[in-house]
Amino acid sequence: MCKERELREKRQRKMTALSEQFGFQRELVLSSFRRQVRGVQEAYQEAEAMINRLVAWAKQRESAKQTKDALVLPQEWLLLRGPVGTGKTHLAMSIANACIDVGLVALFATVPDLLDYLRATYGPESDVTYDALFMQLRDAEVLVLDDLGTQRSSPWADEKVFQLINYRYNFGWPTVITINKKAWTYLDERIRSRLQDAGLVLAVDMDDAQDYRPRQGKNVRRRSSSAESAVSSEQ
Fold this sequence. Notes:
alpha/beta
C-alpha cells in the first residue's frame, strides 16, 4: 500500500511540475475566491460540491485498500463558461489543488500553451516524447483544461484537443474545463456535442459575472497592504 502511495506521489510531483509550466498556482484555493461578487455564486457552489465529492472518494479509496476493494473514479465533469475575468481559472485551480492535497493525481493545463508544448515534443531537443506527454494528460485522475477554444485553430490542434477530451469522455474521468462564452461557438462540433452531454457534464454559465480586473485587479490586496504600511510608517 505504501509503495502504491509513493508511486502516486512521485507521479503527482511530475504532474505539478508540468502544470506549473502552464501557470498553475498551488496557493489558489477556494477560500481565497471572492464569492461575494455578483454572478459567481453558482460556479463557486458547484466547484465546492465537486471538491467535496472527489475528496470523499479519495478518502474512500484509502479505506478500501484495507479490504482490497477496487473503486472506480467518479464520473465528474464541470464546465465553467462565461466572460473573461470572472474567476473561472481560480475556481479550476482550486479544484486541482484540493485534489492534490488528498492524494489525487491532478494536472492543470492552459489549452493554447499545452498545444505549444505538445508541438515542441516533436523537436530533437525535447526531453519527453509526444506519446509519453499525451499519456500523462489523458490518464490524470483529475484533468483541468483552462481556456479551451482560445487556441489557434488548425486541423492538427483541433484533432489533438478532440482526442484528449474524447478519451476522458469515454471513461467519464473527472475533468474541469473553462471556456469563454465567445470561444464556445468556435469549438469543434464533436467537442461541443460531448460538452453538452447533460448526463455527464455539469455546465455553469456565468453570464451575469463581470470582469474583476478593471475594477479590482489581481494585486489590489497587495497595493492596499503597501498603502497601509506606508501610512503606519509615517505616524
